[in-house]
């Protein structure tokens, strides 16, 4: 028996015209920094144009690259933020990965992508808002380290990661959130919020249009951002109030129930400047001292301020699984295992798979591996449930001449044949096919009914 990992390659794809393609692509276009791009052509579009100019979009490899980028816009994994994953991309097949996540209006989202490769390689990072169809928000490439945006609405967002053709390596993707505004009460955090947006007021006659932050009387209420004081006045509900115009976001911040006001209309302020002192004026005279903090936008009126000041969800969990196996074949070692949407057993199960089912490991996240099945289904599986495709799980004698194909499909390309009476050592099983080691081409597939 041979060493079954020795000449192992991905059996799906062939590597053709690499040198010619590479010469064409590296001569097209200039480098675009990793930033938001507001020009007519995004980095992704510039690269796509380079493919068209060199007619590579008409080749099988070019078509596969364009198709991969489009396919993942409608077939992505739903993740939760914060998130981190290191994944592999190979030079032998155009690949693209995508992840969907929910973001709330007022959250600041930071996406970082770092690339490790022996060759210089660009990885395109495109962020979309999901409005029934993907709508491009930011397009960039990985010549710098991060891109940041503030969510404009409560909605789904999608990030697509796609390397240029004919390059291999790995990337680490990190997605984190943070507040877009500073906290409006000095020395306090969102843990001191005692009443939230939408709570009943006046026996249900109205709804709370802000959040109440409790603090000792006289605690400074501070500017959450730079801006201009639009109003310093008194009203029945809010008592002594201050209105701060947030020029950057074209919204007004409302500070109410102040014990005293320490700014004047028209005054310019910067983050952290004291606007007033926490108190109980207005309809708060029978409650503990607190600041009512609200945000108003025209023409929608009051909006929930909580996501604007909510503390970051923290850093993603460290990647604890070994990453020396990316791009390699593994199989299920447990009697049965589940593939999940995200690296969390509380997430929905995508598919249950049987023992010895093979897959390619494409990434690692926390204690999980991101895998792709021969069928194209991809998701997360617990590291404890898998093992290397190394030793055979069965030995079968061929009853008649049998084709070895590059995919588990009767219509796939034939790599070689096995003669009648020859022994076949099966490494894994997918449907009605065995995964075996071929004589010269790495891995291949034969039907189980030999």
Question: Can you characterise this structure?
Answer:
The chain is elongated, with a radius of gyration of 28 Å. Strands 10, 13, 14, 15, 16, 17, 18, 19, 20 and 21 form a ten-stranded antiparallel β-sheet that branches. Strands 2, 4, 7, 9, 22, 25, 26, 27 and 28 form a nine-stranded antiparallel β-sheet that branches. A five-stranded mixed β-sheet has the order 1-3-8-5-6, with no helix packed on it. It contains four helices and 34 strands. The chain is mostly beta strands and 450 residues long.
Describe the structure in brief.
With 450 residues, the protein is mainly beta. It contains 4 helices and 34 strands. The relative contact order is 0.13.
Based on DSSP secondary structure assignment, what is the total number of beta strands? 34
Helix content, binned percent: under 10%
User: What radius of gyration results from the CA coordinates?
Assistant: 28 Å
Distance between the first and last residues' Cα: 20 Å
Structural class: mainly beta
Number of helices: 4
The biggest beta sheet reads: 10 strands, antiparallel
Strand content: 35-45%
What's the shape?
Answer: elongated
Q: Are there runs of 5+ residues with pLDDT below 50, and where? A: 1-38
Mean pLDDT: 89
Domain M23ase beta-sheet core: 207-304
InterPro entries: Cell_wall_metabolism_enzyme, Dup_hybrid_motif, M23ase_b-sheet_dom
Pfam families: Peptidase_M23
Protein name: M23 family metallopeptidase
């Amino acid at each position: 028996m041979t060493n079954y990992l020795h000449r192992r390659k991905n059996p799906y794809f062939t590597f053709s015209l690499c040198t010619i393609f590479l010469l064409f692509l590296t001569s097209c276009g200039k480098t675009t920094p990793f930033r938001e791009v507001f020009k007519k052509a995004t980095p992704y579009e510039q690269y796509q144009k380079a493919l068209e100019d060199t007619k590579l979009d008409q080749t099988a490899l070019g078509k596969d690259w364009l198709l991969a980028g489009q396919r993942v816009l409608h077939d992505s994994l739903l993740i939760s933020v914060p998130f981190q994953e290191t994944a592999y991309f190979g030079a032998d097949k155009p690949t693209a990965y995508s992840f969907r996540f929910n973001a709330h209006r007022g959250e600041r989202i930071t996406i970082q992508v770092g690339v490790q490769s022996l060759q210089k390689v660009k990885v395109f990072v495109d962020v979309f808002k999901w409005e029934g169809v993907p709508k491009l928000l930011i397009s960039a490439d990985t010549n710098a380290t991060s891109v940041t945006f503030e969510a404009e609405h409560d909605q789904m967002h999608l990030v697509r990661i796609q390397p240029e053709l004919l390059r291999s390596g790995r990337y680490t993707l990190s997605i984190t959130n943070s507040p877009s505004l500073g906290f409006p009460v000095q020395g306090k955090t969102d843990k001191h919020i005692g009443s939230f947006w939408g709570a009943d007021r006046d026996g249900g006659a109205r709804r709370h249009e802000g959040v109440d932050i409790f603090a000792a009387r006289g605690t400074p209420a501070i500017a959450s951002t730079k801006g201009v004081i639009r109003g310093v006045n008194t009203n029945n509900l809010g008592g002594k109030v201050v209105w701060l115009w947030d020029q950057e976001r074209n919204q007004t911040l409302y500070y109410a129930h102040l014990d005293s006001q320490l700014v004047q209309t028209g005054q310019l302020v910067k983050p952290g400047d004291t606007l007033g002192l926490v108190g109980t004026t207005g309809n708060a005279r029978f409650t503990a001292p607190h600041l009512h903090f609200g945000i108003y936008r025209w023409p929608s009126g009051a909006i929930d301020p909580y996501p604007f000041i909510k503390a970051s969800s923290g850093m993603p969990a460290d990647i604890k699984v070994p990453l020396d196996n990316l791009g390699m074949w593994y199989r299920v070692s447990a009697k049965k295992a589940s593939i999940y949407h995200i690296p969390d057993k509380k997430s929905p199960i995508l598919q249950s798979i049987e023992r010895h089912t093979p897959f390619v490991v494409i990434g690692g996240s926390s204690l999980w591996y991101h895998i792709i099945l021969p069928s194209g289904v991809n998701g997360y599986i617990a590291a404890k449930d898998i093992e290397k495709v190394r030793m055979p799980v069965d030995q079968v004698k061929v009853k008649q001449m049998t084709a070895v194909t590059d995919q588990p499909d009767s219509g796939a390309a034939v790599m070689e044949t096995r003669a009648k009476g020859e022994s076949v050592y099966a490494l894994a099983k997918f449907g009605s096919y065995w995964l075996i080691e071929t004589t010269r081409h790495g891995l291949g597939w034969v039907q189980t009914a030999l």
